[in-house]
Amino acid sequence: MKLLWYKLDPASLKLRLTVGIALFSTLGLCGLASWTSMRMQQILVSTHKDNIKYIAERFPHDVKIYSDMVSLEEGVQKAVDNLSNDNIIMWAKSDRNVVTARSQILQNTKIAQVLLPLKNVPPIPQVKDLEGRYWLLCATPLQVKGVNLGKFYIAQDITEDQKMLLRLLRSLTLATIIVTAIMITAIAFYINRSLRPLKRISQLTSDISAERLGEAHFNLENPPSEVKELAETFEKMLLRLSQSWEHQRQLLSNVSHELRTPLTIICGYLESTLRRGPNLTEIQREALTTAASEADRTVQLLQDLLDLARADSGAMHFQLEKIDVHELITEVVAMTKQYSNHQIIFESNKSNLEIAVDKNRCKQVLLNLIDNAIKYSASEYPITIKSYLQDSLVIIEICDRGVGIPLQQQARIFERFHRLDEARNRAGGTGLGLSIVKTLVEGMGGKISVQSQLEKGSTFTLKFPGV
Ligand code: ADP
């Protein structure tokens, strides 16, 4: 159901608003329903009460008039006969609890058995449930011409009225429940609709890449003015962020460029001094070798930074051409043999696989991955490269049986400067290699992924559309 969008997140604004408004509305509705039912009961009963009060006040007066013609006791019976009807029943009792007068209807023994034995009847009319019927009852002392005639009782059967009232109350309760349910659904729907622009802002924001921050526009349909203002402020902030991101990128690119040239010269001088310096002492040679290798590493780092800056600003261009995968890998394997004795096995079950890539960039990718495989595995374990076709995709796998990568780190190793703990990184490196590899592979329309198990090895998989 639609309500599932809450996913019962207690911190969700939608849930909080819906529960809050629904709670207050339900309380309000229930309060109104209770008040209405109380008032209905009051109005219904009060008419009967007034009638009974009137009879109770008038009764002694009537008895007095009749007693001028007949005896007091007969006068009471005459007044009872005169004021009784089908609904209003009366009777009088002496102080010794003997019934001295009664309405005709009390000859019917069933009603008489219920009413006549009643004691402690209040002087103000009250509703009582007696054997399934509702009676409005009151009893007042009867004194006429200074003579105490005991107590005078009035009872009115209001069962039908009471039943009608109960039916009305039941309908009112049902109506309240239905209205509450409809109201809660309507409130939930309305709140969901009102908060939709916020959801859209968050969706659009998560889709904006770092490179397109400045182009972000939230085209919201008929948003509330507060949300519109928020969206505009957000767009301005993204624009400022994009400008500062652009400045940083520019700075990084300039600094890398400016530093790379003098460092390359230093590197050249150090290497030529090393080559042409037969009189160097062992310590001097060692110092120069370290300086040359650090300078070389820094030049490589600057080159990597320049590559990334170019890729970020969209200035990296790929010269895509049809390449035979088998030839490419054979060439790269031959290149690695020049600086490493690590055994590399190339398995290919189809020799004429072709992909459209930039040859030099693709070589750079493969060299980087093979270089890592060599760095992070012991020399006795060979590195295997496989190429094959799967679902019209050309797959290249670089597998090693080295230290492996912990599962939680596998997604992060493609981030810039992300390196695993120092202990396993004695091999050196900058933490930029894999992010460049990913940028290059994706720039050429491919994908890269890794599967790895600690102490068992890693497999880096490249996927390119076949041509
Ligand atoms: P680095 O220059 O440090 O090698 P990379 O971006 O190439 O930087 O690699 C990032 C991290 O991923 C490395 O520090 C290393 O810990 C881990 N890593 C990369 N390749 C492998 C591999 N084949 N086996 C184990 N760990 C690897």
From TrEMBL:
<feature type="transmembrane region" description="Helical">
    <location>
        <begin position="15"/>
        <end position="35"/>
    </location>
</feature>
<keyword id="KW-0472">Membrane</keyword>
<feature type="transmembrane region" description="Helical">
    <location>
        <begin position="172"/>
        <end position="191"/>
    </location>
</feature>
<dbReference type="GO" id="GO:0045121">
    <property type="term" value="C:membrane raft"/>
</dbReference>
<keyword id="KW-0597">Phosphoprotein</keyword>
<dbReference type="InterPro" id="IPR036097">
    <property type="entry name" value="HisK_dim/P_sf"/>
</dbReference>
<dbReference type="Pfam" id="PF00512">
    <property type="entry name" value="HisKA"/>
</dbReference>
<keyword id="KW-0547">Nucleotide-binding</keyword>
<keyword id="KW-0808">Transferase</keyword>
<keyword id="KW-1003">Cell membrane</keyword>
<feature type="domain" description="HAMP">
    <location>
        <begin position="192"/>
        <end position="246"/>
    </location>
</feature>
<dbReference type="GO" id="GO:0005524">
    <property type="term" value="F:ATP binding"/>
</dbReference>
<keyword id="KW-0418">Kinase</keyword>
<dbReference type="InterPro" id="IPR005467">
    <property type="entry name" value="His_kinase_dom"/>
</dbReference>
<dbReference type="Pfam" id="PF00672">
    <property type="entry name" value="HAMP"/>
</dbReference>
<dbReference type="InterPro" id="IPR004358">
    <property type="entry name" value="Sig_transdc_His_kin-like_C"/>
</dbReference>
<keyword id="KW-1133">Transmembrane helix</keyword>
<keyword id="KW-0812">Transmembrane</keyword>
<keyword id="KW-0902">Two-component regulatory system</keyword>
<dbReference type="InterPro" id="IPR003661">
    <property type="entry name" value="HisK_dim/P_dom"/>
</dbReference>
<keyword id="KW-0067">ATP-binding</keyword>
<feature type="domain" description="Histidine kinase">
    <location>
        <begin position="254"/>
        <end position="467"/>
    </location>
</feature>
<dbReference type="Pfam" id="PF02518">
    <property type="entry name" value="HATPase_c"/>
</dbReference>
<dbReference type="InterPro" id="IPR050736">
    <property type="entry name" value="Sensor_HK_Regulatory"/>
</dbReference>
<dbReference type="InterPro" id="IPR036890">
    <property type="entry name" value="HATPase_C_sf"/>
</dbReference>
<dbReference type="GO" id="GO:0000155">
    <property type="term" value="F:phosphorelay sensor kinase activity"/>
</dbReference>
<dbReference type="GO" id="GO:0005886">
    <property type="term" value="C:plasma membrane"/>
</dbReference>
<protein>
    <recommendedName>
        <fullName>histidine kinase</fullName>
        <ecNumber>2.7.13.3</ecNumber>
    </recommendedName>
</protein>
<dbReference type="InterPro" id="IPR003660">
    <property type="entry name" value="HAMP_dom"/>
</dbReference>
<dbReference type="InterPro" id="IPR003594">
    <property type="entry name" value="HATPase_dom"/>
</dbReference>
